[in-house]
Automatic annotation (TrEMBL), chain A:
GO biological process: tricarboxylic acid cycle
Name of this protein: Succinate dehydrogenase cytochrome b556 subunit
Record carries keyword Membrane: yes
Predominant cellular place of this UniProt entry's protein: membrane
Annotated source species: Candidatus Methylobacter favarea
Function as written in the Swiss-Prot or TrEMBL entry: Membrane-anchoring subunit of succinate dehydrogenase (SDH).
Pfam families assigned to the protein according to its UniProt record, in alphabetical order: Sdh_cyt
Automatic annotation (TrEMBL), chain B:
Record-linked CDD domains: SQR_TypeC_SdhD_like (cd03495)
Role according to the record: Membrane-anchoring subunit of succinate dehydrogenase (SDH).
Main location: membrane
Transmembrane annotation, as ranges: 24-44, 56-78, 98-124
Biological pathway: Carbohydrate metabolism; tricarboxylic acid cycle
Protein known as: Succinate dehydrogenase hydrophobic membrane anchor subunit
Keywords carried by this UniProt record: Electron transport, Heme, Iron, Membrane, Metal-binding, Transmembrane, Transmembrane helix, Transport, Tricarboxylic acid cycle
Keyword Heme: yes
InterPro entries found in the cross-reference section: SQR/QFR_C/D, Succ_DH_anchor, SuccDH_FuR_B_TM-su
Gene Ontology terms for molecular function: heme binding; metal ion binding
Length: 128, 126
């Protein structure tokens, strides 16, 4: 049977403006996938340390290029965002925090907290 | 005529797999990863900036070794569990779904083993 392509369809994601909470929700998933891929870099780095001083120095030179540093800090931000939104998921798991105002309030909190933690990590890394 | 009762139709449908344990392990690893994130950031800070001996000395101290090994176990498990949910949501065909989930599981298992072996090699150096 031929499919009727003229049938009315419900509004799809492409023409639906996500609320802030919805955007954060999909970002949680995107950062989760990104961070999973990023784990490959952790394996490479820890293996470089195990390889000895020469491999270690080579890895440090490669990683000191500024575009790589930028990507690195984007990953740190992604980690903190995923962590903060993850904490909210743990709060939701207790059955709390589902009121609309609370949801929007927590959305702001977690954005501020993830930025603050990234700045704190930046200070921690460059002061020690 | 349909002689099957509503309960008869419903039985055996749905997931009936390991959903609850998946959900719990996702949460337990998540909670474990919150404090362990501190160690992994410290590890990155050292490996990207510090002299070789300093990184080795830090990593072979027992508490730091423990934290990094615990982080590796928790994070690769947490990632594999999370990616499984993503695959289940977006891959509709049953065969492709099962193959991608197990491919991801195996890749993350090998990555976790590679990371652990590297950590143990570092302990042997130090």
């Amino acid at each position: 049977m031929a499919t009727n392509t003229d049938r009315p369809i419900s509004p799809h994601l492409q023409n639906y403006k996500l609320p802030l909470t919805g955007t954060l929700s999909i970002c949680h998933r995107i950062t989760g996938v990104m961070l999973s891929v990023g784990l490959i870099f952790f394996v490479c780095m820890v293996s470089a340390v195990a390889e000895g001083a020469d491999a270690y120095a080579g890895m440090q030179t490669l990683m000191s290029a500024w575009p790589i540093k930028l990507i690195y800090w984007a990953f740190i931000y992604a980690l903190f965002f995923h962590l903060c939104h993850g904490v909210r998921h743990l709060i939701w798991d207790t059955g709390q925090g589902f009121a609309r105002e609370t949801m929007n309030q927590y959305a702001i909190y977690e954005l501020v907290a993830s930025l603050a933690l990234t700045v704190a990590a930046f200070i921690f890394v460059y002061s020690s | 005529m349909d002689y099957r009762s509503p309960i008869g139709k419903a039985l055996g449908l749905g997931s009936a797999k390991a959903g609850t344990s998946h959900w719990w392990m996702q949460r337990i690893t998540a909670v474990a990863l919150i404090p362990l994130s501190f160690w992994v950031i410290k590890f990155f800070a050292l490996t990207l900036n510090a002299p070789y001996q300093q990184t080795i000395a830090w990593l072979i101290s027992p508490v730091n070794t423990l934290a990094i090994v615990a982080w590796v176990l928790a994070v690769f498990y947490h990632s594999a569990l999370g990616l499984q949910v993503v695959i289940e949501d977006y891959v509709a065909a049953e065969g492709a779904k099962i193959i991608s989930i197990w491919a991801v599981n195996l890749v993350f298992l090998f990555l976790a083993l590679a990371a652990l072996i590297a950590v143990f090699r570092i302990i042997l150096i130090g």
